[in-house]
Amino acid sequence: MQDRIHNVNVLSQDLLPTPSALKEEIPLSEAAREAVLSGRRVVADILDRRDPRLFVVVGPCSIHDVDAAREYAGKLKALANEVEDTLYLIMRVYFEKPRTTVGWKGLINDPFMDDSFCIHDGLRMARSLLLELADMGLPTATEALDPIMPQYLSDLISWAAIGARTTESQTHREMASGLSMPVGFKNATDGGLAVAVNALQSVASPHHFLGINQQGQSTVFHTRGNAYGHVVLRGGGGKPNYDSVHVALCEEDLKRSSLPCNVVVDCSHGNSSKHPRIQPLVMENCVNQVLEGNQSIVGLMLESNLGWGNQSIPEDLSQLEYGVSITDACIDWPTTEKALLKARDKLKPHLGKRSASG
């Protein structure tokens, strides 16, 4: 007889491995550990103005094909070495996708893109890929969406984002206060900055909240607060907010709240009206702001893949076009490389001056 009190709408439950069990199965290597720690130190130094470079979070809107992700990572690592005197490249490795209504929720939730929701397989695939990238010496970034996932994966992440839909969430602010890496909070989907500024004040403070520990037990966490929260401008409400006027307004809001004037600009989403061809133009505008004396822009984000644009998930998965996004449209690799090299060439002569006056 069906229980009429408990789990009335729950069809079934599947046990996952504990975080410690997954880490024992896919352990962190020393090379990966150093890559992750180095990535976190560099971003912290950029935020603290000890490093005059800009960091750039660049990569696919979401990871759905680990082979394509590996190929992309190889290209990005080579480019990172070429531009490292000016730009610090961090690969965007997003495994979870927030949905406005319904849709594919990302590699962890549905790794086989067939609504089978084999989350145990998705977790193993995600951790294995992150380990490979870290072993290459490539720092990685992801969105912290599900508050349980950091227990499984955060030891392999150098930078995290809290998305526009969750920046206002108390659960995500509390979680971010305990994360071990710098965290960017996006402005609200309507373009408003208030929720992001409030989030930065919250994340810097101590919190006490429920979660699971490495053994999968329900636990009360007590955090000291994360000193490296910062705002990410992503546009919204049908308008961009990367231009010098919006950046200046953001600076004023941060100063009024006694927060560091650290601004990352997301060149996609509302700032490009989701048209990939606009992303390089947004990036160029931000680079020009830096050249004209801006001190607050410390980072950029680009949605980039091997191929251009995006595609729907076909019923026959063999028809998927290799290296093309199945979520937001991305710029392709040649465009990515050209944009980053151009930014490097323009910024390199200016960095010494920025460091001296920052």
Description of the molecule:
With 358 residues, the chain is an alpha/beta fold. The protein has one domain: Alpha-Beta Barrel (TIM Barrel), CATH 3.20.20.70. It contains 11 helices and 10 strands. The chain has helices at residues 19-25, 30-47, 66-83, 119-135, 150-153, 170-178, 194-203, 244-256, 279-291, 333-347, 351-357, and strands spanning 54-59, 87-92, 140-143, 159-162, 183-186, 207-212, 218-223, 229-233, 263-266, 297-303. The strands form 2 sheets. Strands 1-2-3-4-5-8-9-10 form an 8-stranded parallel beta barrel, surrounded by 8 helices. A two-stranded antiparallel sheet has the order 6-7. Strand 1, helix 3 and strand 2 (87-92) form a beta-alpha-beta unit. The longest helix has 18 residues, at 30-47. The N and C termini lie far apart (68 Å).
Key features of this structure:
358 residues, alpha/beta, TIM Barrel, two-stranded antiparallel ribbon, 37% helix, globular
Gyration radius over CA = 20 Å
Low-confidence stretches: none
- CATH topology description: TIM Barrel
> What is the tally of beta strands?
10
Contiguous helical run count: 11
Q: Please indicate the count of domains.
A: 1
CATH architecture: Alpha-Beta Barrel
**What is the 3D shape?**
globular
Provide mean pLDDT, rounded.
95
Main beta-sheet annotation: 8 strands, parallel, barrel
- CATH C-level label: Alpha Beta
